[in-house]
Write a structure and sequence with these properties.
By secondary structure, the chain is of the alpha+beta class. The chain contains twelve helices and 20 strands. A five-stranded mixed beta sheet has the order 4-3-12-7-8. Strands 5, 6, 9, 10 and 11 form a five-stranded antiparallel beta sheet that branches. Strands 13-14-18-17 form a four-stranded antiparallel beta sheet, with no helix packed on it. β15 (483-490) and β16 form a beta hairpin. It is globular.
Length: 562
């Protein structure tokens, strides 16, 4: 008699291998997508595209918490979180695939479509080719999962074509579940998996390992060679020679830099300058193809500039302190740099723009970045005579990619989210009533001048200095108003005037120091500043939303006996 061979029931090892197959297929899918994105553009990769979409849809309070909790590592944490979720889903799909050969690959394909849709609908998407990395990666992962699932048992058959009996040992041609007959046919008898099972598992592991190593090797080679898109950007930055400023920054006064260990340097090195933005991948823009368009309401002569045309204009160099609105009281998201660029106001005047105070129809300048970010700045502020710049140099070198190469906006006196557009490509004149820039619908104020702030840099919180004279020092800032006074309070004692470093300009922070006669015990040190208008920094603390934190910074220290 002819009997069918029932499918083997999967064991715990089989289920583990199925989950591993899902993980390997997911990994290969992402690796192939990453490889494809090198030739399309890195921002089109599925993790970056989906992550960017999640960032855009995340409530502002959650974003602000992420910045506080993880600092500049918030983007890395988000990407790791996405990978963790994808890993769990991939393992679940892998467990499903042996029983349903087409459902598992279809699920991988669905994730690929999701990534493709996210990529082509991003604000910075340039064409439908942005869908290619996700689709190619999904195809590779789906094919691999289909192949791997075929080497694992799907479970017992519900029906056999013909059976001879129901009792006793396995009859001729019937696969038993134990003993010699079952083992010979590939079953899982007491003596362990049969040769067919071992062969299937070896084949599974060979295919999985080969695919994983091949994808890893290809991605590694691609990274070593470099993306042609990014190579052009790197070459264009290396080729840029900054012009000598027609209006150089005044020399920094000799007394502007205090020699106090632990205090923030007067000029923040580029590598240490804070970075807070929504870009999961730092845009690398080719300066040779970059263009800046000035257009919109009140623009009589729409104009487009190349980087060469900007560098050939009258250049301006200034020391300007920037601050992020997400900076908590005493936080690190503030820095001072020497910027080189051209006057933004001059470009607007030449285009026929007039500020609202002179009858101009536009009161908002919307700067657009290559990554789709929009930042709204008051036209009146930009054109009131302050050094609002389109900068292409930072601390004597071309802008670093992370800080906006080839060109960014710098407007002293405003928080970055309403002024400091990086990777800028468009300046549109409009009104606040007509358009809300990126952060406004997310709960932040449309207008946000920098608040007066001060920070204790040394001693650090919970420091244990020795009794005696201890230098309490830090920085204070109130851009475009300046700092006129800094005071320090020890515990509940009186406010004591700190010594201010010389002022470079009212657009930069000022260092300060107070020699403190420290006595043994636990003490709370608090600082406050007075700006150039005579306004004292308020003591009551407020949150960063909607227009910047305020309040007094304090540190707790324990002074040890000398």
């Amino acid at each position: 008699m002819t009997l069918s061979q029932p499918r083997r029931e999967p064991t715990r090892t089989d289920r583990l291998l199925a989950a591993v197959g899902g993980l390997v297929s997911g990994y290969v899918s992402l690796a192939v997508a990453d490889l494809a994105s090198f030739w399309v553009r890195p921002e089109a990769g599925p993790v970056i595209a989906v992550g960017g979409t999640l960032v855009d849809r995340t409530p502002a309070t959650v974003k602000d918490w992420a910045i506080r909790a993880f600092g500049e590592n918030d983007k890395t944490v988000l990407q790791l979180g996405i990978l963790a979720v994808l890993g769990v889903l991939a393992a679940a799909v892998g467990l499903l695939a042996p029983r349903h050969r087409l459902v598992g690959p279809a699920a991988v394909g669905a994730f690929g479509v999701l990534g493709a849709v996210a990529a082509v609908t991003r604000p910075d998407s340039r064409s439908l080719t942005d869908a290619v990395p996700s689709l190619v990666g999904a195809a590779a992962g789906a094919l691999l999962l289909y192949a791997l699932a075929g080497r694992l048992p799907a479970g017992a058959s519900a029906v056999t074509r013909e059976r001879v009996g129901t009792g006793g040992s396995a009859g001729p041609g019937r696969e038993g579940t134990g003993g010699a007959a079952g083992t010979a046919q590939g079953g899982t008898g007491a003596t362990g998996p049969g040769p067919d099972v071992r062969a299937d598992r070896r084949g599974f592991l060979l295919v999985a390992a080969s695919a994983g190593l091949l994808a890893t090797g290809a991605a590694a080679v691609a990274r070593a060679i470099g993306s042609p898109v990014q190579e052009n950007a790197v070459a264009s930055r290396e080729a840029l020679r900054l012009p000598r400023p027609a209006s150089p920054a005044p020399p920094v006064p000799a007394g502007a830099r205090l020699r106090v260990p632990g205090i923030s340097p007067f000029l923040t090195p580029n590598r240490d300058f804070y970075r807070v933005d929504t870009a999961l991948v730092v845009p690398r823009v080719d300066a040779d193809t970059w263009r800046l368009r000035v257009h919109g309401s009140g623009v009589l002569r729409e104009v487009t500039y190349t980087l060469r045309e900007l560098t050939e204009r009258r250049t301006v160099e200034r020391d300007i302190t920037l601050a992020c609105v997400s900076n908590e009281v005493g936080g690190p998201y503030v820095g001072n740099a020497r910027w080189l660029g051209v006057s933004l106001a001059d470009l607007l005047w030449e285009a026929g723009v007039r500020p609202p105070s002179e009858g101009g129809p536009a009161d908002q300048l919307v700067a657009r970045s290559v990554d789709g970010m929009t930042i709204g700045t008051p036209v009146e502020t930009v054109m009131d005579g302050r050094d609002a710049l389109l900068a292409f140099g930072m601390n004597g070198e071309p802008l670093p990619f992370a800080h906006g190469f080839p060109v960014r906006m710098v407007v002293p006196g405003l928080y970055g989210y309403v002024s400091a557009c990086k990777w800028i490509e468009s300046v549109e004149l409009t009104t606040f009533a007509a358009y809300d820039a990126y952060w406004v619908p997310r709960g932040w104020s449309a207008r946000a001048p920098v608040k007066t702030e001060s920070r204790i840099d040394t001693p650090r919180p919970f420091a244990r200095p020795r009794a005696g004279t201890v230098a309490v020092a830090g920085v204070a800032w109130a851009q475009h108003r300046g700092i006129s006074r800094v005071q320090v309070r020890v515990d509940d004692g009186p406010w004591q005037d700190a010594r201010l470093a010389a002022e470079d300009s009212r657009d930069t922070w000022r260092q300060w120091v107070l020699p403190w006669a420290a006595t043994p015990g636990q003490h709370t040190l608090t600082v406050r500043a007075t700006d150039g208008t005579g306004t004292i920094q308020p003591e009551q603390r407020t949150d960063t939303m909607p227009d910047g934190a305020q309040g007094l910074h304090s540190v707790l220290v324990t002074v040890e006996a000398a």
